[in-house]
Design goal:
The two termini are 40 Å apart. Strand 2, helix 2 and strand 3 form a beta-alpha-beta unit. With 335 residues, this protein is of the alpha/beta class. Helix content is 47%, strand content 16%. The longest helix is centred in the C-terminal third of the chain and has 26 residues.
């Protein structure tokens, strides 16, 4: 049985919600996890939940705080995040889940666990909802400064994610730009375009911002700086729209009645936007699954993050990605 190392000390509600999430994953999904952190506190929670001695604990006496610089994780070798990453690197765990400092989790993924062969940089991909399904946006924050070759690799990673995890055959790939015509965009986009065009990907050209949620493309590639801005703006817009709807509903009795009738639809919409349902976002291309979940992750989110990590293993994602890096990028483009 696979085992996922879980950083129990990272996140706003650590360790209580993190440990409870590991229990849920074991109870409901029959997925094993290794609980990494303050052993005494973790054991106390397991006793309270009447789940003692059913999950493995590895003690780590230090914690990476949210305000710390990401590089500090490499110095704090007794931190729960570092120890969890080391368990994965040494083959004692098959993946990593953390709700802690995002930059520190990325550092562990890149420098302790490392990237798969033939891939220079792992990237964060997020599956955003569109009317027909999902659009993979990659990278959304792992690499803020990129070269054209990196974007080509991100496209292959996104293609593999869309095909293997989302079940989209021959996904349509685009590069995020300020216009749909070839030749539009900054230097990075212009230099990356011919590489993507020469690949064996189903590359359809430039994607504009409106295409992200329209379903025009299945995979949209960008550097991590742009992708992170898009992601954060999208999160903020979603929250703002929900808040504005709530405010308008309170203005009249008719609106309240209408909202009551629409409640099932609104709940379904909220579920689609709820990070707890998705568990977290993956660092794609690391040697083993690394799932970065929200700092406000509750037990449900942790359970689903463990589920997502296991899905990457059962779908043999890394094996398919390694194959695609060789088959989808012609030799002349690689060199």
């Amino acid at each position: 049985m696979t085992k996922i190392a879980v950083d129990c000390m990272g996140g706003d509600y650590a360790p209580e919600e993190i440990v409870k999430g590991c229990i849920l994953a074991h109870k409901e999904l029959e997925l094993e996890s290794i609980l990494v952190g303050d052993e005494e506190r973790i054991r106390h929670i397991l006793r309270q939940e009447k789940y003692e001695n059913k999950l493995h604990i590895v003690h780590a006496g230090d914690v990476i705080q949210m305000h710390e610089t990401p590089s500090n994780v490499l110095k704090k070798k007794n931190s729960s995040l570092y120890v969890a990453g080391k368990l994965v690197r040494e083959g004692m765990a098959d993946g990593l889940v953390s709700a802690g400092n995002t930059g520190a989790v990325l550092t562990v993924g890149k420098f302790i666990i490392g990237a798969i062969e033939d891939l220079e940089r792992p990237a964060i991909g997020v599956a955003l909802p569109n009317p027909a399904g999902k659009t993979v946006l990659i990278d959304v924050g792992a690499n803020v400064d990129c070269k054209p070759a990196h974007l080509l690799h991100f496209a292959v990673i996104g293609h593999t994610y869309a095909e293997e995890i989302l079940g989209i055959k021959n996904p349509r790939v685009g590069i995020l730009s300020i216009g749909e015509e070839e030749g539009k965009g900054n230097e990075l986009v212009k230099e990356s375009y011919p590489l993507l065009k020469a690949s064996k990907l189903n590359f359809l050209g430039n994607a504009e911002g409106r295409d992200i949620y329209a379903g025009t493309f299945d995979v949209i590639v960008c550097d991590g700086f742009v992708g992170n801005v898009v992601l954060k703006a999208s999160e903020s817009l979603g929250l703002a729209v929900l808040q504005m709807i709530k405010e308008e509903v309170q203005k009249s009795l008719l609106a309240k009645i209408g909202a009551l009738l629409m409640k099932p639809a609104l709940n379904n919409f909220k579920k689609k936007a709820d990070f707890a349902e998705y568990g977290g976002i993956p660092l794609l291309g690391a040697k083993k699954p690394v799932i970065i979940t929200h700092g406000r992750a509750n037990a449900k989110a942790i359970k689903n993050a463990i589920r997502v990590a296991n899905e990457f293993l059962t779908h043999h994602f890394n094996e398919r990605l390694s194959e695609n890096l060789k088959t989808l990028i012609p030799q002349e483009v690689r060199t």
